[in-house]
Amino acid sequence: MSHALALAARGLGRTWPNPAVGCVIVKDGRVIGRGWTQPGGRPHAERMALDQAGQGARGATAYVTLEPCAHHGKTPPCAEALVAAGLARVVTALTDPDPRVSGRGHAILRAGGVAVTEGVCQGRARQLQAGFLKRVTQGLPFVTLKLATTLDGRIATATGESRWITGPQARARVHVMRMTHDAVLTSSATAITDDPDLTARDMGATHHPLRLLADSALKTPPDSRLGRSAKDHPVWVLHGPTAPEAARTAWAATGARLIKAPTEGPHLNLTETFRLLAAEGLTRVLIEAGGQFAAALIRAALVDELALFQAGCLIGADGTPVLGPLGLAALKDAPRPRLIEAGLCGPDTLTRWAF
Question: Is 167 helix (H, G, I), strand (E, B) or coil?
């Protein structure tokens, strides 16, 4: 199952709206087939592993990181395919909460005479499938907030200089994070100030995340790096209902997709906006934005994980703080995420926190 989970991780960022699943087929102590969900969600991991195992699958054991699907979509149910292949046993990590499956896959296997063992490496599988699970059960994507700061919590000098606070190893790690998320989202303030590209270009990748721009009034120039590259790598622009028609036309001409989102005052309603993204199939979203937008996400309780890069330098109180106001009246109201990882990233540190 550990091997199957490692295979499943290869699909992160590429399989949405489907989950990233891994499958390993074993017979007589030897791996005879393995697979993971392919880009776009097809073919499924089980189908890949079965095709590799061939006739050898009869009487074998399959280890699958998520309950095999039980519904007819673009392909027949994987549960039925496993039965037809003559598997003797199927071991799974998680039950699929999708109402179209939710125990039916396991039931199909048992009805077909296949022995089923559930819950193996369940904790690790839940971490891996956090995005898919949250989208299905809560109608929201899993959100990772990335922040890069000095030791004293600043992201820019008093003059606005911010490149680069952290070193090349930290920036490379961020590009790896982009590759494991379905999409990376930035705010209009960051897009205008930093003009980011948001691809995984430094990794020599052929796959890049979907790029999202949250800009209620469409103030970001269409000739920004996001606009100029929209025809090469998809960009979705999330805007408010009163965004100027001329700006919508100009952004549409870049090849970007425009999505109208509800607003609260001058800003997007972040909860409803993220519900729109989940409805579009997104399961994992990485946030790379400034302190005001980051604070708004935390206030809305939308952040699931914080990836905090810290550099060994000091800027002082006249620099820009890493977070905007959280509106706290008492210390007892302060969010207290749980530390889940701490380590070095070149000369910098990276800590990961779960909310």
Answer: coil
Long-range pairs, 137-141, Cβ under 8 A, ≥24: 137/97, 139/275, 139/278, 139/279, 140/271, 140/274, 140/275, 140/278, 140/302, 141/182, 141/274, 141/277, 141/278, 141/282, 141/283, 141/284, 141/285
Tens digits of residue pLDDT in 45-98: 999 999 999 999 999 999 999 999 998 766 679 999 999 999 999 999 999 999
Contact 80, 108 (CB under 8 A): yes
DSSP tag of 265: T
Token pair of 318 as six digits: 């006249």
User: Which residues 6+ apart lie within 8 Å of 127 measured at CB?
Assistant: none
Bridge pairing between strands 320-321 and 305-311: unpaired
Q: Give the pTM.
A: 0.93
Q: Tens of pLDDT along 228-285?
A: 999 999 999 999 999 999 999 999 999 999 999 999 999 999 999 999 999 999 999 9
Backbone phi, psi, residue 3, to 5°:
-65, -40
Instruction: List, by residue number, the catalytic residues.
Output: 46
Chain centre to alpha carbon of residue 32: 31
What's the CA gap between 113 and 95, in Å, rounded? 19
Buried residues in 28-58 as b, exposed as e (16+ CB within 10 A): eeeebbbbbbbeebebbbbbbbbebbeebbe
Q: Pull the structure tokens for residue 330.
A: 């008492």
188: β partners: none
Long-range contacts of 335-343 (CB under 8 A, 24+ apart): 335/298, 337/306, 340/305
DSSP secondary structure, 21-36, as one string: -EEEEEETTEEEEEEE
Residue labelled with tokens 């200089």: 161
Which value, in Å, is the radius of gyration of the alpha carbons in the chain? 22
Q: Are 165 and 194 in contact (CB under 8 A)?
A: no
